[in-house]
Amino acid sequence: MPRAARVARRRSRFTLIASAIAASAALVLTGCSAGSSGAETTAGGDAGAFPVTVKSALGSATIDAKPKRIATWGWGAQDIVLALGIIPVAMPSFAYSGTDDGVLPWDADRITELGGKTPQLLNAATGEVPFEEFVSAKPDVILAPYSGLTQAEYGTLSKIAPVVAYPEKPWATSWRDQAAIVGKALGLTREADELVTKTEDSVTALAAKYPVLKDKTFFYAAANELGKLNVYRADDPRVQLLNDLGLKNSPSIGALDPSKGDGSFFYQLSNENLSKIDTDLLVMYFDTQSSVDAFTSDPLVAAMPTVKEGRFAPVVGESFVAATSAPSVLSIPWMLDRYVPQLAKAADAVK
Q1: Sorting pLDDT into bands at 50, 70 and 90, what band is 230?
Q2: Residue 142 per-residue DSSP state
Q3: DSSP states of 313-346
Q4: Which residues pair with 59 in a beta bridge?
Q5: What is the pTM of this model?
Q6: Do the domain assignments include residue 10?
């Protein structure tokens, strides 16, 4: 295709998206609701809580009336909405860890419990925001408190509907704060607080059942790249969940961090530095057991005291990895009974 034709085609597509966004924004502003593939929600809550403004690192979202058509983006928001008894009109599809149609298993279970149908699934495979798909969903609000939205993406989405983003940094909102933010946006603060309390009680009960975990140090990482580890920092939700269970962050997490203050939730550590990790437990995730075996076959890994002495707790399996990596009021109950005994087994090996 000639360059001029390609440029014209791109401009035409951009114009189409812009027009669709403008039309959707007009529907939201006038309170209209054209038909879509998802059903409108009629959950309880305090209608008097509106209008409500939810501030985020990317801007403030003012929600004038109780949302009936809820879309979500990133991880976790759809869990909270479903846990509150509402099926979103649109939510991300998860190729990793999802069912054949891209729905996380705990979400699929909850949709079945609510007697509903799978909502419109947004293409999240590339990590790019599918603006046209959001337009077709015609949401009243877009919830993305645990996401990687950029300022530009936030601005474009805000032309479709009010967008509730993360309060400080991308991919760093605790599971408690996620629930509180979603609850406020939907006028369901009390219900969200109750979900948090119930989840905390479950975590506390299991921690009490396995006192061996208390005050043990841990180092959370992933071998996503050959010869390197991704090391998760203290503000990552998967790390915070282990803190909830009584475990403490290894001092090595901070001591080996070469790029403090870069705003990311992880940093990379070369395998040549594995011997510098000083921790009671090494917690890592893997897609399959064969990936675990390949990792531990590396001589540098095999020489680590945590691996040699059985103080290694691998989280194995896509769904299990997803549930423990992005904990929520819905995923924590789904995986906790399996996760905690596995951590306790590694903690038992600490001398």
Answers
A1: very high
A2: E
A3: EEEESHHHHHHHHS--TTHHHHHHHHHHHHHHHH
A4: 56
A5: 0.85
A6: no
> Which class for 228: exposed (0-12), middle (13-18), buried (19 or more C-beta within 10 A)?
middle
Residue 11 placed within a domain:
no
Q: Give the least confident one: 23-37, 95-109, 200-214, 253-267.
A: 23-37
- Residue 56 structure tokens: 């985020």
- State the Cα–Cα distance between residues 31 and 348, nearest whole angstrom: 58
| Residue 47 pLDDT | 66
Q: Do residues 129 and 215 share a domain? A: no
Rounded mean pLDDT of 176-204? 98
H helices of 149-188, in order, are 151-157, 175-185
Residue 13 domain-assigned (yes or no): no
Query: Sign (positive/negative) of CA torsion 328, 331, 337, 341?
Result: negative
193 and 217 together in one domain: no
Asked if residue 12 has pLDDT above 90, the reply is: no
Q: Is residue 8 part of a domain?
A: no
When pLDDT is cut at 50, 70 and 90, the band that residue 38 belongs to is very low
CA 143 to CA 90: how far, in whole Å? 10
Give me the phi and psi of 27, to 5 degrees please.
Answer: -60, -45
Which residue, of 199, 229, 250, is where some domain finishes?
A: 199
Based on the fold, state whether residues 74 and 133 are members of the same structural domain: yes
Preceding peptide of 51 cis, ω within 30°: yes
For residue 218, the SS3 value is strand
The dihedral over CA atoms of 87, 92, 95, 100, expressed in degrees to the nearest 10, equals 30
91 strand-pairing partners:
121
Listed residue (161, 150, 195) closest to 177, CA to CA:
195
* Neighbouring C-alpha atoms within 13 Å toward the C-beta of 289: 0
C-beta of residue 250 within 8 angstroms of C-beta of residue 269: no
- pLDDT, position 101: 86
User: Dihedral of the CA atoms 181, 186, 189, 190 (nearest 10)?
Assistant: -150
Q: What 8-state DSSP symbol labels residue 271? A: G
Average pLDDT of the chain is 88
Please enumerate, as own/partner, the contacts of 303-306 that have beta carbons within 8 Å and a separation of 24 or more: 303/274, 303/275, 304/274, 304/275, 304/277, 306/219, 306/277, 306/279, 306/280, 306/281, 306/282
